[in-house]
Protein backbone atom coordinates (compact mmCIF):
# COMPACT_ATOMS: atom_id res chain seq x y z
CA UNK A 1 0.00 0.00 0.00
CA UNK A 2 1.27 3.46 -0.86
CA UNK A 3 1.22 6.06 1.89
CA UNK A 4 -1.56 8.52 1.01
CA UNK A 5 -0.27 11.85 -0.33
CA UNK A 6 -2.31 13.75 2.25
CA UNK A 7 -0.79 11.85 5.20
CA UNK A 8 2.40 11.76 7.26
CA UNK A 9 3.18 8.53 5.37
CA UNK A 10 3.33 10.04 1.86
CA UNK A 11 6.00 8.45 -0.29
CA UNK A 12 6.07 5.27 1.79
CA UNK A 13 5.49 1.78 0.46
CA UNK A 14 3.94 -0.45 3.12
CA UNK A 15 3.67 -4.22 2.93
CA UNK A 16 0.57 -5.49 4.71
CA UNK A 17 -0.24 -9.07 5.72
CA UNK A 18 -3.85 -10.31 5.50
CA UNK A 19 -4.74 -13.62 7.17
CA UNK A 20 -8.10 -15.13 6.30
CA UNK A 21 -9.24 -17.97 8.53
CA UNK A 22 -11.97 -20.52 7.82
CA UNK A 23 -14.67 -18.18 9.16
CA UNK A 24 -14.07 -15.52 6.48
CA UNK A 25 -16.18 -13.73 5.18
CA UNK A 26 -18.20 -13.92 8.40
CA UNK A 27 -15.15 -12.91 10.43
CA UNK A 28 -12.78 -10.09 9.49
CA UNK A 29 -9.27 -11.00 8.37
CA UNK A 30 -6.36 -10.42 10.72
CA UNK A 31 -4.26 -7.58 9.35
CA UNK A 32 -0.75 -6.47 10.23
CA UNK A 33 1.88 -4.19 8.76
CA UNK A 34 5.01 -6.03 7.66
CA UNK A 35 6.74 -2.70 7.06
CA UNK A 36 7.54 -0.84 10.28
CA UNK A 37 5.35 2.22 10.77
CA UNK A 38 5.23 4.94 13.43
CA UNK A 39 1.50 5.06 14.17
CA UNK A 40 -0.58 5.05 17.37
CA UNK A 41 -2.93 2.35 16.02
CA UNK A 42 -0.18 -0.08 14.92
CA UNK A 43 2.06 -2.07 17.29
CA UNK A 44 5.63 -0.99 16.58
CA UNK A 45 7.13 -4.42 17.30
CA UNK A 46 4.56 -6.71 15.61
CA UNK A 47 2.77 -4.51 13.07
CA UNK A 48 -0.60 -5.58 14.48
CA UNK A 49 -3.33 -2.99 14.04
CA UNK A 50 -6.01 -2.03 16.53
CA UNK A 51 -8.43 -4.92 15.91
CA UNK A 52 -11.52 -2.75 16.38
CA UNK A 53 -10.65 -0.77 13.25
CA UNK A 54 -11.55 -3.71 11.02
CA UNK A 55 -13.77 -5.98 13.12
CA UNK A 56 -16.29 -3.38 14.35
CA UNK A 57 -19.29 -3.59 12.06
CA UNK A 58 -17.76 -6.42 10.04
CA UNK A 59 -20.16 -8.54 7.98
CA UNK A 60 -19.98 -10.99 5.10
CA UNK A 61 -20.71 -8.25 2.55
CA UNK A 62 -17.43 -6.49 3.41
CA UNK A 63 -14.21 -7.42 1.63
CA UNK A 64 -10.52 -6.61 1.15
CA UNK A 65 -11.39 -3.34 -0.59
CA UNK A 66 -13.18 -2.25 2.59
CA UNK A 67 -10.10 -3.22 4.65
CA UNK A 68 -7.82 -1.19 2.39
CA UNK A 69 -10.15 1.81 2.67
CA UNK A 70 -10.05 1.54 6.48
CA UNK A 71 -6.24 1.31 6.42
CA UNK A 72 -5.97 4.31 4.10
CA UNK A 73 -8.24 6.32 6.38
CA UNK A 74 -6.16 5.22 9.38
CA UNK A 75 -3.00 6.53 7.71
CA UNK A 76 -4.63 9.85 6.85
CA UNK A 77 -6.19 10.33 10.30
CA UNK A 78 -4.42 8.44 13.11
CA UNK A 79 -6.69 7.99 16.14
CA UNK A 80 -4.87 8.74 19.42
CA UNK A 81 -8.04 7.85 21.36
CA UNK A 82 -7.93 4.15 20.38
CA UNK A 83 -4.20 3.38 20.52
CA UNK A 84 -2.19 0.21 20.70
CA UNK A 85 0.91 2.41 21.20
CA UNK A 86 0.17 4.77 24.11
CA UNK A 87 3.47 6.66 23.85
CA UNK A 88 2.96 7.44 20.18
CA UNK A 89 -0.67 8.42 20.83
CA UNK A 90 0.44 10.78 23.59
CA UNK A 91 2.99 12.36 21.31
CA UNK A 92 0.35 12.84 18.59
CA UNK A 93 -1.94 14.57 21.11
CA UNK A 94 0.70 16.61 22.96
CA UNK A 95 3.37 17.34 20.34
CA UNK A 96 1.97 16.79 16.82
CA UNK A 97 5.03 18.36 15.18
CA UNK A 98 7.33 15.80 16.83
CA UNK A 99 4.92 13.00 15.88
CA UNK A 100 5.02 14.14 12.25
CA UNK A 101 8.84 14.29 12.34
CA UNK A 102 9.05 10.74 13.74
CA UNK A 103 6.45 9.34 11.33
CA UNK A 104 8.30 10.80 8.35
CA UNK A 105 11.64 9.51 9.67
CA UNK A 106 10.22 5.97 9.90
CA UNK A 107 8.88 6.28 6.35
CA UNK A 108 12.37 7.26 5.23
CA UNK A 109 14.06 4.50 7.26
CA UNK A 110 11.66 1.60 6.67
CA UNK A 111 9.20 2.35 3.86
CA UNK A 112 11.16 4.22 1.22
CA UNK A 113 11.40 1.21 -1.07
CA UNK A 114 15.16 1.48 -1.41
Automatic annotation (TrEMBL):
Pfam families: UQ_con (PF00179). Residues 1-112 form the UBC core domain. It comes from the Eukaryota. This is UBC core domain-containing protein. The lineage of its organism: Eukaryota, Sar, Stramenopiles, Ochrophyta, Bolidophyceae.
Amino acid sequence: MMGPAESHYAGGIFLIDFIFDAQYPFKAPTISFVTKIYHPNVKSDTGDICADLISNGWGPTLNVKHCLEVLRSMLITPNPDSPVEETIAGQLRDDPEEFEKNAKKWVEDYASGS
